[in-house]
Amino acid sequence: MPDVMIPFRKMHGLGNDFVVIDSRGLKSLDGRAGDLGLTPRQAAGIADRHFGIGCDQFIVMEPPSEGADVFMRIRNPDGSEAGACGNATRCIASLVADELGKDRVVVRTIAGELPVERLPGGLWRADMGPARLGWREVPLAAEADTLHLPLALGPVSDPAACSMGNPHATFFVDDLDAIPVTEIGPKLETHPIFPDRANIGFAQVMAPDHIRLVIWERGAGLTLACGSGACATIVNAHRRGLVGRRATITMPGGDLVMEWREADGHVLMTGPVATSFSGTLDPAAYRG
Fold first, then answer.
1. Superfamily for 132-264?
2. Active-site entry in 55, 85, 91, 231
3. In CA terms, which of 89, 162, 277, 278 is 20 to 30 Å from 196?
4. Cβ contacts of residue 121 below 8 Å, gap of 6+?
5. Which pLDDT tens digit goes with each residue over 79-111?
6. Each residue's pLDDT tens digit, 247-263
7. Is 55 a catalytic residue?
8. Rounded-to-integer distance, Cα 35 and Cα 142, Å
């Protein structure tokens, strides 16, 4: 990749923040459009909050294939690739919708196609697709009931699990403030029951339509918000009979309105997007 300055945007959904690069008009050294040739190590360097720009996920907008308006590639701060990020999906959809003059766009990721539509009041609703509930789909290391996993650590036990394009486990707790998330989150993320690691949610049901949630995110750690984590939480909470199919999920960064649609099993997520600032970066500064 030539040593050139690359434009970027810093965006966030409820404080879940992203460095966004639009590679659709850029080319790699061998002339491939939309392929910056950035390595996982470079992505991790850009995501570093001390030596890079800093973000929860590093996002690259790439040329779409048929049936989508954009392809969104997602990397965690450790450089690993993720299949889904609900807050980033809304952010990228807002950029593409404004660019195309449309109120509905389709964002494709390695996990599938995600339709997103503009709503009044600066809100965006993303169809995050169906929740996957089978143990192989999560995935788990061995057959188990995904509604009651045989997993416990410290004050938490008996989580429910599902996949929203990435693996999630949700622990339901009586007092969210009493949970040592930063202590047990890393251990649960890397527990052998999760061969691909997992996003770990700690949820306190406040009412039949309201849940408080804190997420330890796979490859990112403690985040202010997690869209796919909110999706998994409404699914797992409804499966347990704790809430209805529609609820507000309150995270440290703010609220998402979630619905697990009965007709087709798709999970709908509604929330805001924001741009913090824009600039340019030198990819050569992150080689190593």
1. Diaminopimelate Epimerase; Chain A, domain 1 (3.10.310.10)
2. 85
3. 89
4. none
5. 999 988 999 999 999 999 999 999 999 999 998
6. 999 999 999 999 999 99
7. no
8. 37
